[in-house]
Amino acid sequence: MTAEEFVSQPSRGGKSPYEKFQTLLADKLRVVRRNVAIFSVMNGPGNRYVEIRYAAHGSPWYQASKMDAIVALDKQEVSIGT
Question: CA-to-CA distance for 7 and 33, rounded, in angstroms?
Answer without folding.
Answer: 16
